[in-house]
Design goal:
The protein has about 675 residues and is an alpha+beta fold. It has twelve helices and 37 strands. Helix 1 packs antiparallel against helix 3, helix 1 crosses helix 12 and helix 8 runs antiparallel to helix 9.
Length: about 675
């Protein structure tokens, strides 16, 4: 069936196309079955609409961490055609966009290990809509090269003015040996080229700059901005970034802004998009302690103006649509994420969508054809993983394309409720409480789930990890502890490492609040976290060993000094060093240094190809806990990254966590 509805009537929707199939959930589902459902990566990893609006490409997960690129021809029978599969475990197919209706441009990210150091690589290639005629758009490594080309290039524009079948890409230039040849390339750094997506031929547009780290094109595809990040001491990146712009048709670069960096924070105007019609840059800057959207004219005369700012939370996202990625609005998150459109037509359209899809308040435009007459939209909520829709502006019809998580369709989820709780000093800490469906919310086994980062935050919406625990009968509280981002510079403070006592104190107060409110059984309270959240879960034992009866840490930081050492081979070393800081908080804030204080049993998970947090962090924690005679279980996933991007591995992890918690907290 291929029924559609008009936004004017907001009638019900029937699917245009559905990806795959999965058995419907049954009442007597086993732990293994539940873990498999929630562990499977989402069906739609990334999606793109062709220039004509007649073809859709999307990446879905395959077995053993693989990815499958599919194409749907809407002008045909609408069936899903797999056109290629990436089965390399150490590489991920992360993105595919339509350059033309006959060519897709895709990126693969991979990790290699050399001399004990993990090195990331990326490669860009083009392929036909049936998987034919693949062409590598990243230049191949030359035998004379004096180094490796890690950066395979970024696509700055899918359309280049006056050039058919051509994209604008960055290129990492690697110098070559000059002995015995006059043709060797001596250039080094990041430049820009026009690249033909049919034959891979390239034309240099911008000479390489050894300090350049990025370039930005405007909404016409013209190169307008260069980002430079000069080296500091040795090969380390310094604490300053410089943004340069140039006038249309000119080659001279003019300084626009200077930004001071501190690992995960920045001070100064950070441009991210250029509007050619306004001849202005849109970006982010601090406005009275909060991040706001600022517009800066690129005429060298006009004054910056605040486009959007708030006095309670950061305005932290630009809303951009179309192949030209034009700016149409901005977004912020209070209890729930909200979008304000600058474009009057889209503002009206968004209101119509909200009326047509009342149960899915989180609506994102994720793709558009060349003239934006057709839009790809994802709508979701806390209890709905999401549905992809295609909207036709001419007919005003909205059609279902496919669910974002096919395997979790029509399953009852737990409602995520914004809440707050008092910290020990009286500060109200925001967070989200999710209870099992049908529960009275009293005397439950419960989990405190701090987020990663630390400069990140939880948001209202669907969360596969939360919903797995809820499906297994746990109440889950996600605190946005002090040190989180999104709430302004004062809330972020000195970050969750340097001010760890405040951040971890808030995490522990989350658990105490669950008990005080009667939501949690004090004898069945656990803490679970991933990345910094795993660090917080472990460090909670250092502050109060008696609070939680079980600790689960996934890819955690366990020793701050080792974290500093782990960063030394990389150019970000100086920034990481500054973020961690120096002083007694380093040892005091390292759970591996205080294994003797642990009273609760610990379960650890880590992937061996984790570039965010080295696997040695979990190995050290396991060693220290065992030496201290403390109960610990450690599961290591060979060949997986920080996100454990493998459905079977995630399912296995969920199953093992549930068994571990059940044995410690009671079924």
């Amino acid at each position: 069936m291929n029924l559609r509805f008009s936004l004017a009537t907001a009638a019900s929707v029937i699917a245009v196309a559905v990806v795959g199939s999965f058995p419907a959930p049954v009442a007597a589902e086993t732990l293994e079955e539940t873990a498999a459902r929630f562990g499977i990566r989402q069906t739609v990893q990334q999606i793109s609409l062709s220039p004509s609006g007649q073809k859709i490409a999307f990446i879905e997960p395959g077995p053993q961490g693989s990815e499958i690129l599919n194409v749907i021809d809407l002008a045909g029978d609408g069936t899903i055609e797999p056109i290629l599969t990436n089965s390399e475990q150490r590489a991920d197919l992360t993105r595919c966009d339509w350059a033309t209706d006959q060519r897709l441009v895709c990126m693969i990210d991979s990790v290699s290990e050399g001399s004990g150091v993990l090195i990331g690589f990326s490669r860009v290639f083009a392929v036909g809509p049936d998987g034919s005629e693949p062409v590598l758009l990243t230049p191949p490594n030359n035998m004379r090269a004096l180094g490796y080309r890690q950066d395979g290039g970024s696509v700055l524009a899918l359309d280049v003015p006056g050039e058919d079948d051509t994209v604008l890409m960055t290129k990492e230039f690697v110098p070559e040996r000059t002995i015995g040849t006059r043709l060797a390339n001596e250039a080094s750094g990041l430049g820009v080229e026009e690249v033909n997506v049919i034959n891979g031929r390239r034309k240099k547009l911008e000479n390489p700059d050894s300090d350049a780290v990025d370039y930005i094109a405007d909404d016409t595809g013209a190169l307008r901005m260069k980002v430079r990040h000069p080296k500091g001491v040795g090969a380390n990146l310094g604490d300053k970034q410089f943004f340069y712009y140039r006038d249309p048709g000119e080659s001279k670069w003019n300084l626009l802004s200077e930004v001071t960096l501190d690992a995960q924070s920045a001070a100064g105007f950070i441009p991210v998009a250029i509007d050619s019609r306004r001849n202005a840059a849109f970006g982010f800057d601090t406005v009275e302690g909060y991040t706001g959207v600022v517009e800066v004219p690129l005429d060298g005369v006009g004054e910056p103006s605040i486009v959007m700012a708030r006095d309670d939370v950061d305005v932290d996202r630009l809303i951009r649509i179309g192949r030209q990625r034009r700016v149409v609005g901005a977004s912020y998150a209070t209890e729930k994420r909200a979008v304000e459109y600058f474009d009057a037509e889209l503002k009206t359209f968004a209101a119509q969508l909200q009326a047509a899809l009342p149960g899915k308040p989180l609506i994102n435009i994720v793709g558009a054809n060349a003239d934006e007459s057709r839009l790809l939209i994802v709508a979701s909520s806390d209890v709905d993983p999401g549905m992809v829709y295609l909207y036709d502006r001419a007919s005003r019809e909205l059609s279902e394309v496919m669910p974002v998580r096919q395997h979790l369709q029509d399953r009852t989820m737990g409602t995520m409720t914004p809440t707050s709780f008092p910290a020990a000093d009286g500060t109200q800490i925001p967070g989200y409480l999710t209870l099992p469906p049908g529960s009275d919310g009293k005397n439950l086994p419960a989990i405190v789930l701090p987020h990663g980062g630390p400069s990140a935050r939880n948001e209202w919406g669907f969360d596969w990890l939360v919903q797995f625990f809820v499906a297994r009968g746990y109440a889950v509280l996600q605190p946005n502890y002090r040190g989180s981002s999104g709430y302004g510079s004062a809330w972020f403070g000195r970050n969750g490492f340097q001010a760890w006592e405040t951040a971890i104190g808030d995490v522990n107060d989350a658990g105490r609040w669950l008990v005080a409110e009667g939501i949690a059984d004090p004898d069945r309270l656990a803490v679970v976290g991933w990345s910094y959240g795993g660090y917080a879960a472990l460090q909670s034992q250092v502050l109060d060993p008696s609070l939680y009866q079980a600790v689960v840490a996934i890819a955690p930081v366990t020793d701050l000094e080792q974290l500093r050492d782990d960063a030394r081979p990389y150019t970000s070393s100086a920034l990481v060093d500054a973020f961690i800081g120096r002083g007694p908080h380093v040892r005091a804030g390292s759970p591996a240094e205080h294994a003797d204080r642990f009273a609760a049993p610990v379960m650890l998970f880590h992937g061996t190809l984790d570039q965010n947090v080295a696997v040695g962090q979990s190995r050290l924690m396991e060693k220290r806990l065992k030496s201290a005679g403390k109960p610990v279980q450690y599961v290591e996933f060979d060949g997986l990254d920080h996100s454990l991007s493998d459905s079977s591995a995630r399912a296995d992890m969920l199953e093992q966590i549930d068994i571990f918690l059940g044995s410690r907290l009671g079924d």
